[in-house]
Amino acid sequence: MAMERLTELEDEAWRGFLVTHERIWRQLEADLAPLGVSATEYSVLGLLGEAGRGGIRLTELAEKRVMSTAGVSRLADRLEQRGLVERCRAATDGRGFELTLTPAGRSLLRKAWKQQYAGIKRLFLDKLSDEQLRTLADTWASLADHDDQRPGE
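The structure corresponding to this sequence follows.
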């Protein structure tokens, strides 16, 4: 069975993406550490902040965060124990649960947003021209639009 290899350019592009992602992600996590929040926790708090006071169903949060519902539920438990979120029955049908930020969660999120945005600008955005940013934005959109199925599936 012959194994296909990446071209030199493909390998350079792929490895560059992986190394850059890891470097930036680690620094963003380090920037959040003094606030006592991980990048994963921040991403969930951020989604809740964007949702406003209505909150988000745990299943929807799992989908948006690309996590299992069980994983989001465990994370919600930890955030709830810290007083950052509260879980309540869905107002629309009472079957599921929604997660909302508490005042303490909103306060932490405001601090984390400032920290995160400063880091994103410093580590990523400020290093690229508008043309490079447009190319990246178009690239991510193109990748998001493609079907993940392999040929013949």
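Residues 8-32 form the longest helix (25 residues).
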